[in-house]
Amino acid sequence: MRLASARGLTAVIGAVLGAGALLTAFPFLWMVSGSVKPRSESVAHPPLPLPQEPTFESFARLFGELDFGRYLVNTIAVVLTSMAGVPLMAMAGYGFAKFRFRGRGVLFFLVLATMMVPVQVTMIPTYLILNGMRLTDTLIGIALPGLVSGFGVFLFRQFMSTVPTEMIEAARIDGAGEARIFWRIVLPLSRPIMAVQIILTFIGAWNSLLWPLLIAGDERLYTLSVGLALLNRQIATNPSLQMAGSTLMVVPVLIVFIICQRHIVRGFTLSGLK
After folding, report:
1. DSSP letters for 52-114
2. pTM to 2 decimals?
3. If you compute the radius of gyration of the chain from its CA atoms, what whole number of angstroms results?
4. Are the beta carbons of 212 and 222 closer than 8 angstroms?
């Protein structure tokens, strides 16, 4: 009797969770469905849940007429450049976690203090610095401010504090240098938090809108987020085209998250963050 009631309760919980998941995923499914609808179906009333005559005409128009191919290449270049900051943040986190030096607490406090300053406050000073370095209107100038973040250093520091110090001391006794210890021992053990930081860096660079719009005066340097914002302003009567652009923005982020989700959950668990 108890077993039957437990199974019934499990079935009810599963049904509720499934309904909640479907409700949460509905906007995403509607977006993907709308991206392959002809314009006539996208403006039909009442709206059709599924396309009757699926077509990739909207995607072809994005890449053929609206230069979204260039925007995609620019966005990928910015993302890859931003990824170069992940090992830099790992080095900083390792230093704060495993080295004892004068002023360590003050320096780490300054790193945490940068998390309290809104990005919008630092945009103008950052722009002036990059303009002085002649990096405005360049993809490097777009990616450079997001190369290192205080939150990333904090994540690595929290995780690397859990790496056994005895293991590092044993490697030093065996004659391993600090660089070899970091690259061959500490970094492989930090794969979960690396996955977390990689996806956070990817999302930040992929979805960045205000900074590329500010620093890139040349339309050829626009990223996907800027192109999508301009698309919504210029073409407000073609929902299929807007849905196609939104799908192009959202699906890669979802794919990266699905690939890294196991490491992400493990990384947050081991680092003590919720």
Report:
1. SS---HHHHHHHHTS-HHHHHHHHHHHHHHHHTHHHHHHHHHHHHHH---TTHHHHHHHHHHG
2. 0.83
3. 24
4. yes
Q: Which of 18, 183, 158 is nearest to 96 (CA)?
A: 158
Q: What distance in Å separates the CA atoms of residue 181 and residue 171, rounded to the nearest whole number?
A: 7
Please provide the distance, in angstroms rounded to a whole number, between the alpha carbons at the two ends of the chain: 38
Q: Which of 102, 105, 99 is nearest to 169 (CA)?
A: 99
Distance between CA 234 and CA 240 in Å, rounded?
Answer: 14
Crossing angle for the helix pair 239-271 and 191-207, to the nearest 10 degrees: 150
Tokens at residue 76, please?
């990928």
Q: Running DSSP on this structure, what letter comes out for residue 25?
A: H
Rounded to an integer, what distance in angstroms lies between the CA atom of residue 55 and that of residue 51? 9
- pLDDT, residue 269, reads 63
Topology (CATH level 3) of domain 56-271 = MetI-like fold (1.10.3720)
Q: Which of 207, 224, 189 is nearest to 71 (CA)?
A: 224
Amino acid (1-letter code) at residue 23: L
Structure tokens at 131: 């303009």
The whole-angstrom separation of Cα 135 and Cα 21 is: 45
Q: Measured at the alpha carbon of residue 139, what is the angle toward residues 136 and 140, in degrees to the nearest 5?
A: 80
The position carrying tokens 């890859």 is 80
One-letter amino acid for residue 120 of the chain? Q
> What long-range pairs does 234-240 form, CB within 8 A, spacing at least 24?
237/43, 238/39, 238/42, 238/58, 239/34, 239/37, 239/39, 239/42, 239/43, 240/34, 240/35, 240/36, 240/37, 240/38, 240/39, 240/41, 240/42, 240/57, 240/58
**Whether the predicted pLDDT of 274 surpasses 50:** no
Q: What are the boundaries of each domain within the chain? A: 56-271
| Matching residue, tokens 């652009």 | 245
Pick the residue with more confidence: 156 or 4? 156
pLDDT for residue 154: 92
